[in-house]
Amino acid sequence: MTAETSQTLDRGLRVLKLLADTDHGLTVTELSNKLGVNRTVVYRLLATLEQHALVRRDLGGRARVGLGVLRLGRQVHPLVREAALPALRSLAEDIGATAHLTLVDGAEALAVAVVEPTWTDYHVAYRAGFRHPLDRGAAGRAILAARQQGFGDPGYTLTHGELEAGASGAAAPLLGVTGVEGSVGVVMLADAVPERVGPRVVDAAREVAEALR
């Protein structure tokens, strides 16, 4: 902590991060131990966060992240999209295919940024806001592969005809970006993805990840 920072705000943010990292919630005692402060401080922090719907407590007294964080989260997509656009433009122009950034939204994959190439005669029409199940299409499958791989690098994922007949896709997951689960990919009208596309998509995903850190 420095003279320019707020200790109370810092503790409140640490509470939110701790709760975000657990599926079953934390008790006041558990939070007190993790933060290294007494229970009275934790009660005050939780009460304040509850007033803003950022934390909720169940009947057993366990604290969890509240629905108020969803209102804050809606503002994340524009920021992520803006950060990703340079890498997506470069990818689309280089490959000559529609490039996209896809994030997890519940059980679905949601395209939040799409860039189409400027020099091709035709390309796949793919729009921001398009949703599909995580287990269909290269974008969703790349995200699932990253989940299964854990801390390793799953590389890239290739698919054909899963979302649109005659279209092939390649995608690589975003790695090392706290709080963001997604992938970068391309979709093209082809029977198979050219060999150079997979590694190029991995590079683009790495560029986006670095821009978001």
Task: Offer a concise description of the structure.
This protein has seven helices and eight strands, in the order αααββααβββαβββα.
Textual characterization of the structure:
This protein is of the alpha+beta class. The strands form two sheets. Strands 5-4-3-8-7-6 form a six-stranded antiparallel β-sheet. Helix 2 crosses helix 3 and helix 5 (76-95) runs antiparallel to helix 7. The relative contact order is 0.11. Helix content is 42%, strand content 21%. The mean pLDDT is 91. It folds into two domains: 5-64, Orthogonal Bundle (Arc Repressor Mutant, subunit A); 71-210, GAF domain (Beta-Lactamase). It starts with 6 loop residues before the first helix and ends with a helix. The radius of gyration is 21 Å and the shape is elongated. The protein contains seven helices and eight strands, in the order αααββααβββαβββα. One of its GO terms (biological process) is negative regulation of DNA-templated transcription. This is HTH-type transcriptional regulator KipR.
